[in-house]
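Data's thin. Show one?
=====
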Amino acid sequence: MRRISRITVAGAATASLALALSACGSTSTSGSSDSKGDKGLAIAYDVGGKGDQSFNDAAYAGLEQAKKEFGYQTADVEPTEGETDADKEQRLVSLAKQGYNPVVGVGYAYASAVKAAAEKFPKTTFGIVDDATINTKNVADLVFNEEQASYLAGVAAAKTSKTKVVGFVGGVDIPLIHKFQAGFAQGVKDTDPKVKVLSQYLTQTAEEGGFASPDKGKTAAEGQIEKKADVVYAAAGLSGQGVIEAAAASKVWAIGVDSDQYEQEALAKYKDSILTSAMKDVAKAVYNLAKSVEDGKPETGIVRGDLKTGEVSLSNSNPKFADDAELQAAIKTAKEKIISGEIKVKSS
């Protein structure tokens, strides 16, 4: 276990870190430290950055929990527009050089950067969220069965829809988001084959803004609502805010993703239109990795969260959703069948 220090850092130390990382994204540091060994968890955000009310914010919540519990210095770094894999690698290398451990890349786009940085710093534990391709002894691949939570979202959508039309908006047309679509569509069809699912992807690549463009999400949702969709599920990062805004304006239901979006302060004015959220506990995965390092037994290899472990789920924050006994019974039954293996959820 690392020695935990609560000595206040001199301003020069923070300035030094900011300078070291200025070429590869803006940085926030917090906590206290008096030596390299006292630095703890650092995260590098995916597209959309901190404040996306979704994926990146969930990772930040894990960082905040680790900082509070372990009392060490943390860092979180924003992405830059048009950055390359080399930029991402430089960001991770800079954090490792500063003594942060573990260092987490938030999102599959960090795969090559994490692999390269981990090879350069074999004594540092690295993590990557949503990628299972890195087979390196000091890397933890933090992945989830998103399709399982999405199946439950499909059950909720089919049971809630009055028009028998529901929508899915994916941020980027990639295998990761295909998992959300596949699970959702299967959950809808298994619940009510008469319900039609409208699906749309905002962009072909992340660089085109599929995860970071609320305006694109809003336009896509408006198009589906015009076609009678009265429940719209978004797996689109920051773009999902536009989907939720469109649903609220048309007085139909939205289903959020990754975080409990009903509870997000930035979405408070739309909360009455957020039926539920298909959550994956990125916060828990990030925190658990930090704890494993703190305990001297770093997680490595594939670390998977699913319905059985409780790391994917549906939120119950909206009372109208939580108090609907028939709907909750249908979701409970589906969850039990998925966990038992009776229902096998498709991932593509």
User: Anything to note?
Assistant: The first strand starts at residue 27 and ends at 30. The two ends are 42 Å apart (CA to CA).
